[in-house]
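Here is one chain, start to finish.
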Amino acid sequence: MKRKLISAIGIAGMVVSIAACGGEGGSGGSDKGADAKELTVWLTVDAQNNWPQLVKAADAAVQKKHPGLKINHEYYGWPDKNAKLDAVLATDKAPDVVEMGNTEMLGYMVKGAFAPLDAGEFDSSDAWLDGLKASVTYEGKTYGVPYYAGGRVANWRKDVAASVGVKTPPKTYKELAAALDKIQKKQGNKFSAWYQPTRDWYAAMSFVYDAGGAIATESGGQWKASLSSPESLKGLKEFKNVVDSYMHGDKTKDESDRYIVYGQGKSAMIFAAAWEGATAEDPKNDKTGKLKGNLENFVMPGPSGKNMPVFLGGSDLAVPVKSDAQALAAEWINAFTGSSGQQGLMAKGNLPNNKTDLATLKKDPKTAVPATAAESNWFVPMAPGWGQVEKAQILQTMLQSIGTGKKSVEAAAKEADAAIDKVINTK
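Its structure:
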């Protein structure tokens, strides 16, 4: 599930207010508020609309241990959640539990908005998916608990593939390229064998990480951009090859309306969030009338010979440092995201927060593809200035320059590295 990173906490004076609290210190975990009589939990409408019974179950589990505890719930849409959170964090009435998109966590952790937690207190923390674990970890401390995940898969039209004699999804990148070459030749240059928006940095960076590269690396507490490394350049050049060979749409677009374009029937494949294929075949978006039951997810093979590492989106739960019930908040989070909660979330079509449960999904044909794809994953650099990198759209600018041919891969990567290095270590 894609989330927009909030690069800075918006309310003036909030940072000073948080800093004045001093934090709870230590390596994580707090007994603060263990005897509190009231708990306030902020979640997005996803929980309210899709799995309210899991919320009730968590409430019941905590209230059984703490008779008389009152638990308040507030639900927010993603677009307005953070503005309201920023506003309340500047006061003394912070919620005790708050849901965050995993890419939103970093800006708040850097600013000291969340209390440190003891990861050992939470179910399956030793098996959290790598990308999700990274999203709640800053400077060696844990500031949140992964809730659920959403990955990326390849999706193509079975009828178009069959028209060139391909009856099964490719297992290797070589097989994929061979199939796409046949499709592109048959369909002509007004058709995109692979609709891959140029500015889609989630896909592009998968190529970078598959090649052994990285956006930035850390050494001695300092981060340095590494898009110009030989490994990263190899990945970027293969991404350019994909765009040059198979993407015949507007090469200045991002991925925000990819499912709509896919539904128009002018492309044979996408590499996207797992929900996008199903959304494209919805009658509201399917302009061909041929997509229902004709689209197929498969694990994206990487040029390296391994499965393509994918960006894991999803949600985390955190405890604001200003909460007066931090201990109870941690209990509620564990009740909600623990073993029984993960089973409930998986039943609703989500990926779990841990490798143990993920392994069970691999055994079910209905969930094997997204579960297998999620095993190999990457996450953004957990650097203090990463929010500024995203806000400036440095990666998107680089990729558009590469995709349109405005600049060479080497020149665009070098320019991006310089821009990243200016801000990536700045809090």
